[in-house]
Amino acid sequence: MRDYNFLEKTLHNLVFKYKFINLSLFEIEKMFFNKNLDFENNMHVFITGLPRSGTTTILNLIYSSNQFASLRYRNMPFIMSPNLTKLIKKKNILSKERAHKDGITFNLDSPEAFDELFFLSFDKKNMNIKYEFKKFIKLILISENKKFYLSKNNSNYKRIDFINTIFCNSQFLISFRNPLQHAYSLYLQHLNFIELQKKDVFVKNYMNYLGHYEFGLNHKSWNNPKKYFDTLTLNYWLEQWILFYNKIFENYKDNPNCKFIPFENLKERSFVENLIDMLKIKSVDYNLIKEIKIKDVELNYDKKVL
Question: What is the CA radius of gyration of the chain?
Fold first, then answer.
C-alpha cells in the first residue's frame, strides 16, 4: 500500500468506496463459476487472535503446504471475484518487507487477511449471509483448484460460532503470546502506523477499507477499556490483552474445534509437527518460522496488571 502509484491508489479508492463494484463482480462469478464442489464438511482452517501474536507466521507456514486456497495480494482490489482477477495480468514484484517492519516479507502470491471485506460488504442482518459466505469460499477454492480453505483474519474471533455452524469440521487456531511482549509489540506498531498514516492518508483509507483497525489513527479497541484509555501507554495494550483473551478463552476453551497456539512454541519443531499432523498436512516450509526476538521493555507499566 505504501508503494502504490497514483493510478493504483485511485483504483483501490474507487473499488472499495463503491461496494457495488465488488458485489457486482461477485454475482457474475457466481453465475460463471458454479461447478459442483463438495467442500462444506472439509477441515478448513481459520486463524485468529490479536494481531502481533504470530497469525501471519502460522498462515504462511500452513499455506506453504500447498494444500490450501487463500486470498492473496494478487486478488487486490477485486477481492470478491478471485477467478476473474486471474485474468488480470499483474507484473510480479520481488518479495519485500511489509509495513510492520518485522522481517516478514510478501509478494503478489502471498496469502493475506482480505476476507474481512466480504463481511464489510454485506449487511449484518442479511438473512442470506451464510449462503453467500459458502459461495464466496467456494469461488476461492475453485480459483486455486483446492479442497481446503485457509483464512487469517484477526476479526474472526467474533464470528467463530457463525463460521462453525457453516463449516462444522473446521479448525480455529487462536494464537496468543507472552502478554508483556505482545502488548509492547502492539504499542510499537500503533506508533509505527500513526506515522505512516500521517505521511500518507491512503494508508489510513486502505486500512479502513479492509476493516483493519488494529493500530494507527483509526484504531478501535477490541473491548471497552475499564481503567486504561490512552493508547500511547503500555497499560492500555496490556489491559486489552487481558480483556480479549479472558473472553475468548472462557468462550472457547472447551470447543474441540478451537486450538490455542502459543506463539513462543512455534520455535519448537515437535510442536509444529504435532500441529500440522492435527491438520492432516503432509509437509511445510520450516524456514518460514522466524526467530522470536525478546525485546527489552523500558516503558513504565502497571505491574499488577501484568
Answer: 19
SS3 state of residue 305: coil
Q: How far is the C-alpha of 221 from the C-alpha of 2, rounded, in Å?
A: 25
Amino acid at 135: K
Report the Cα–Cα distance between both ends of the chain, in Å, rounded. 35
Whether this prediction's pTM lies above 0.70 is answered by yes
Contact between 186 and 50 under an 8 Å Cβ cutoff? The reply is: yes
Q: By the 8 A CB rule, do 62 and 290 touch?
A: no
Smallest Cα–Cα separation from 137: which of 59, 50, 41? 41
- Quote the DSSP letter at residue 222: S
Please state, in angstroms and rounded to a whole number, the distance separating the CA atoms of residues 275 and 264.
14
C-alpha cell at 114: 482480505
Q: How many other C-beta atoms lie within 10 A of the C-beta of residue 78?
A: 17
229-279 pLDDT, tens digit each: 999 999 999 999 999 999 999 999 999 999 999 999 999 999 999 999 999
Whether residue 82 is preceded by a cis peptide bond, meaning omega within 30 degrees of 0, is no
What is the CA 130 to chain-centroid distance, rounded?
20
Q: Quick check: 2 pLDDT over 70?
A: no
Tell me how far CA of residue 185 lies from CA of 43, 147, 294, in angstroms: 32, 35, 10
Residue with cell 463482480: 25
**Residue 45, beta-bridge partner list:** 150, 171
Task: Give the 3-state secondary structure of residue 172.
Answer: strand
* Residue 124 predicted with pLDDT over 90: no
Q: In DSSP terms, which residues pair with 97 in a beta bridge?
A: 105
